[in-house]
Design goal:
single chain, mainly alpha, about 50% helix, globular
Length: about 100
């Protein structure tokens, strides 16, 4: 059902995307940032390289910590941030439907 609901995104998640607005672009970047910084400097998670010279800038918006941790292994293996974000969207739809069923 999640694949049908997200069609045509599910047909090619590595190339198609909902990057038609800046929120989706920012959230894709956020997932990649969290996956990048966690194994290197986990205490610097909120020190994202945006809005310089402000500090703790990731706290100004959604930090996407749980989805980022779920997608981090794929990013570490070389998957593109667009692919990982799309898979997280589809997984989120599927898991929400499953939780509703429970």
């Amino acid at each position: 059902m999640a694949v049908l609901h997200s069609w045509p995104l599910a047909s090619d998640p590595g190339h198609l995307s909902r990057l038609d607005n800046h929120d989706a672009e920012f959230l894709t970047w956020t997932v990649a940032w969290v996956a990048h910084i966690l194994p290197r400097e986990p205490l610097s998670l909120f020190e994202a390289p945006i809005l310089y010279p402000e500090r703790h800038t990731l706290a100004f918006s959604e930090h996407m910590f749980v989805p980022s941790v779920m997608g981090a292994p794929l990013l570490w293996l070389g998957a593109s941030p667009v692919l990982v974000y799309n898979l997280l969207i589809i997984a989120g739809l599927a898991l929400s439907g499953w939780a509703m069923y429970l």
